[in-house]
Amino acid sequence: AHAKAWQTYNTHFRPTQNGKVSIVLGSHWVEPHRGQSKAATAALCQQSIEAVLGWFAEPIFGDGDYPVSLKTKHAALMPTFTPEEKLWVQRTADFFALSFGPDNIRLGQSLVHNGQRITPDLRSLLGWIKLEYGNPRILVAEGGWFSDASVGREDTVAIYLMKSFINQVLKAIKFDGVQVFGYSAWSLVDGFEWNYGYGIRRGLFYIDFNQPNRTRIPKTTAQYYKQIVTDNGFPSNETSIEVKAHFPCKFHWGVADSTLQVRFHPFSPQFSDSHVYSWNLTGDGSLRPIPGVKLNTRPAQCTDYLAIRSHLRLFASTGASHYRFALNWSLILPEGCRSSVNTEALRYYRCVLTELKKLNLQPMVIMYYPSHRAPYLGLPGPLHASGGWMSYSTVEAFQEYAALCYQELGTWVQNWITINEPNRIIDIYSNITERHQAAHNLLLAHAKAWRLHEREYFAEQRALVSLALHADWAKPANPFLESHTVAAERFLLFELGRFLDPLLGTINEKKKGKYPHEMRVYLEERAKVYGLPKSPLPRFTNNERQELKGALSFIALNHFTTRLVSPNPPTQDTLQKKPAPDHDCLTLLDPTWPSSSQGQAVVPWGLRKVLKWVNQRYGRTLPIIVTASGIDDQASVEDNLRRYYLRSYLQEALKAYQVDGVNLQGFYMWKLQDRHAPEFGLFTSTQDQSKAKASVALYREIIAHSGSYNSSSTQPCRFTEQQEKCPTCEWMFKNKPMVVFGGCLLITSAMLATLVVF
């Protein structure tokens, strides 16, 4: 029937109308599961698409007959073309018209075999058509997804599905050379969706079917589609504009690690073992102590810990000046108080710090680094048993622990982090009231540790003390809705303002010692909506306010990605359950953003945005340091994703410093070494011989040029004051025994010469 219509048009109407005729064919996309791309599985995927798209496309765009796989599998059912029919059907389309949407995906699900998966990968399907049928011109005649009828006009998720499909088409054109000449969004208005009835909506315009006039109202997808049409795609944003400048000379170029593993072994015993051994007396290669012979031993030294030097040599080879690592609170004080102190662990940490000093490198030390890998999130067992961060006794115990850290290690530490990511610790509490109380106590614990240093140790040690916050940027998920803009700002206040406002106040509201005004008002209003007697947010006492005011030496931010934020409107069901309110936000990811194997989106401009937000809210009096930033990369050596991340994120950091006037004073790459398989490490695991990945060379080059990865750029500061090098001093330090021996020899020679003269 199609061929008849095309032949009729071609013969009788094309000469005068000069139009084009095709047939719209729908298809799914199927591919092997990751790690299962065997030839047999790939062949099954090919047959799956041939059974749907190829059934009609092969006779028209191929050799005029059905796919061989279809005829083989269904020989008894498939009609046959005569030779004349093959010629009649073949090439009866002026372009390839494709339909791709949820109906195609559902159809494909029934054809999936083991080892296969159906994905909404329009780009791959377009590439398959190009390879299979000789690169025809293609029109995506129907493209789109659906929303549940309850979503109404604010169809945020549909925006990103639309963006994903159109972006895949653009990639197919630009990267794969597919000749796509058009895209039609399905559909203009909501309608009757076959067996789904009115339960789902696919229109750009919303229709209330309960209203007699069926008014058409544009959804946010209509606004977004209009924007894409106006821009003719996705124009470059300001990220693509490169800034050529340099960071300040005292900039922290760092590498960040989690809790430093205390490796008492391997241990070098040659100066601590008093025995003398004979070797191979019995021919078995063994060492046997000689009875009755003893040597004098010396006290234990840092060189006995063989792991420390090799670990720090890896770090030094990056060219970074600062190493961020964490102490293990539960290891140092297993009982949670100073009645039981692990002096061996403290000695190990002292050795790490003194070895760093010998290498002319600076530490940034975290006192408490909570981790899901550690028992009780890294808290000493007794403190966890007594309530953890819900108990004020943990606040007092942390102050006692901080005092021990300052006393035992403060001589070598100029930058302290009291608590790493308290805004992530509180996520473990499902009860919102408990979450607010835990955040409250974490803030008080930090403030007590900061005040203690100011009062008793600052005059001698002059260290800077902060706490590090997880600081991903929040972008309104739906740019056409004010409620999403408000939600994104609220998300940032709960994530960052909750901890920074009580310590610093804001530029507009100088009162310190209080939670953000917007946060307090929001929680009070939500408490009324939920029928609660009061806001779940605790209040600070007057003494606590005084303790909190200004208790921060610099602003430490751990930044990795950007999140899309939307409001989470309460349903009747949630209102009946009456949960205590929090920020009431949902987060999602833009599927067009490049991402890692663990799903972390690479969004360079998000770093600049969050730095600018902090700068605008709190001013530039205090320096800001990005204390952790990185991405997982499965490549064992050629970690191209991490290199792109490093270049692009540091370029955005440079814009924040140079263009926006942010007082940015440091950037720490997360992290030094993989634990097992390739992930975030700059170096492979010890099992894989601790090999440097390609990103190490790039980071070293950027550091050498103070923020630029262009080797032709000038180097404004060879060495900072902290890192000023003295070649003579270095040589003398490395050759201490020779210098001492030479000095003794010189003195002896002088004395002998004097005796000879007399």
From TrEMBL:
Tell me the organism: Xenotaenia resolanae
Pfam families reported for this sequence: Glyco_hydro_1
- Print the keywords alphabetically: Glycosidase, Hydrolase, Membrane, Transmembrane, Transmembrane helix
Q: What is this protein called?
A: Klotho beta
In terms of InterPro entries, this protein maps to: GH, Glyco_hydro_1
**Family assignment?**
Belongs to the glycosyl hydrolase 1 family.
Which SUPFAM superfamilies does this entry report, sorted A to Z?
(Trans)glycosidases
Entry superkingdom: Eukaryota
